[in-house]
Amino acid sequence: MTTSALFQGLILGLGMIIPIGAQNSYILSQGIKRNHHFLAATICMLCDVLLIGLGIFGGGKLIASSEWLMLLIGWGGVTFLVVYAVLSFKSVWRNQYLVTTHIAAANSRKTIIGTTFAVTLLNPHVYLDTVMILGSVGGTFDGNEKWAFAIGTMLASILWFYTIAFGAAKLAPWLGTPKVLRVIDALVGTIMLFIAYSVFNTLSIIPIIE
């Protein structure tokens, strides 16, 4: 039964993480640029692991019961996603993808760390997937099965984020051309705006939730 719970956690975790979202788009972009992509993947993974643990072992109820906290996370996420989308479209407009250097990439470690935390912690969908959904399902298990389910979901996060970081870096010679980078920035900007719009719609119903 413990093995079954771990497998259920792995499958459900992958189902929550694999769909293209802010985290995946960002890691894919950094992987193609080979710009601290494993650092970004590690931060996303650690945040997910902590949030999954928080949700499964009872913290999800605290967030769900606080209207002001939900609104704070939501509006912060909308603002960040829109700004990030604007920056992506600005890169598309300027089309200066050849003007990059290894020095510039090396000096951007702090920026990568800050942006990765923002992409993760200011994205309300992360809390919905990890704390609310995975936390609710994990709460139905008891004892060792609950731990097995939690480990399975956390393993899904570890496997997925490192896989896309490694895969994007390996495919960088083909994906890292100026034309492809421009298309990717356009897609990332579009995804960010779509997520921001969906979060905005969610925020509009929070005040009427009892």
From TrEMBL:
Pfam families: LysE
InterPro entries: LeuE-type
Keywords (A to Z) from UniProt: Cell membrane, Membrane, Transmembrane, Transmembrane helix
Subcellular location: Cell membrane
Protein name per its UniProtKB record: LysE/ArgO family amino acid transporter
Transmembrane segments: 6-26, 38-57, 69-89, 110-127, 147-168, 180-200
Cell membrane recorded as keyword: yes
Record membrane topology: Multi-pass membrane protein
